[in-house]
Inverse folding.
């Protein structure tokens, strides 16, 4: 591999007690094609460093002082480092933001100039995105778009999470305003909370925007066809439209938002498993 440069590097190793050991590594070779930074034990030994181990931990001493520690992760011994720019790579930001599309990442660069978000490398391809974001071509919609905001609302309920969230939620409901595309996401532990969430949503529209939605479009899921929600819609004069069975495209606005969130979740689990 080509050596681009040579110089000294300051490393800040995190020790097991939480303290940080700062030390200088001399004559470091800069090899841009190297996937990971490497330290040669032979070179350290020539400089008078001493190595001893305990379980999966290796300690490198200079005299009686522990200079840094390394932890065996199943493949290699890795040195825990303190770094204020630990999340400065494009891949880390891409994963942390739910595997956003490159175009959306570029918008983030413009909106958050102080976020230290690097630009996408020209040869960057996210294998998880390729695998988890494959979809069929969209169908041309025959529905007329509503022009008045907070009048026509699309809603959908997710499949259960593989694991509960920190707040013990297993589902999320999406609500989308047809005219503006404004989106709301509500989390719940049980599907039985669907009616309460819709009632609270309508109350919020009436109080904050002085409008009662004219219509809700949902699928035929059991959570949307209860007597309680039918009675509530009837009392408010809200029309309840249903998409045809086994036809998620007919409620495409809410389904797309549900898919976007679901893709992020699948990508997170896929990245964690690989």
């Amino acid at each position: 591999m080509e050596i681009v440069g040579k110089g000294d590097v300051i490393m800040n190793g995190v020790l097991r007690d939480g303290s940080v050991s700062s030390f200088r590594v001399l004559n470091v070779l800069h090899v841009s094609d190297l996937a990971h930074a490497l330290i040669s034990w032979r070179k350290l030994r020539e400089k008078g460093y001493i190595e001893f181990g305990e379980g999966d931990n290796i300690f490198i001493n200079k005299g009686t002082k522990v200079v840094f520690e390394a932890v065996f992760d199943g493949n290699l011994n890795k040195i825990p480092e303190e770094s204020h720019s630990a999340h400065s790579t494009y891949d880390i930001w891409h994963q942390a933001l739910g595997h956003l599309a490159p175009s959306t990442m570029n918008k983030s660069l413009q909106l958050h100039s102080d976020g230290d978000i690097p630009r996408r490398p020209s040869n960057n391809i996210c294998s998880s995105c390729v695998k988890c974001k494959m979809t069929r071509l969209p169908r041309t919609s025959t529905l007329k778009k509503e022009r008045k905001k907070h009048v026509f609302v699309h809603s959908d309920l997710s499949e259960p999470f593989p694991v509960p969230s920190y707040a013990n939620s297993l589902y999320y409901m999406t609500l989308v305003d047809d005219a503006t595309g404004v989106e709301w996401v509500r989390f719940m532990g049980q599907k039985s909370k669907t009616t309460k969430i819709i009632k609270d949503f309508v109350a919020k529209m009436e109080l904050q925007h002085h409008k009662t939605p004219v219509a809700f479009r949902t699928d035929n899921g059991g959570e949307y066809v209860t007597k309680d929600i039918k009675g509530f819609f009837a009392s408010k004069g809200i029309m309840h439209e249903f998409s045809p069975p086994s036809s998620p495209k007919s409620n495409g606005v809410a389904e797309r938002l549900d898919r976007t969130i679901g893709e992020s979740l699948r990508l997170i689990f896929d990245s964690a498993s690989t």
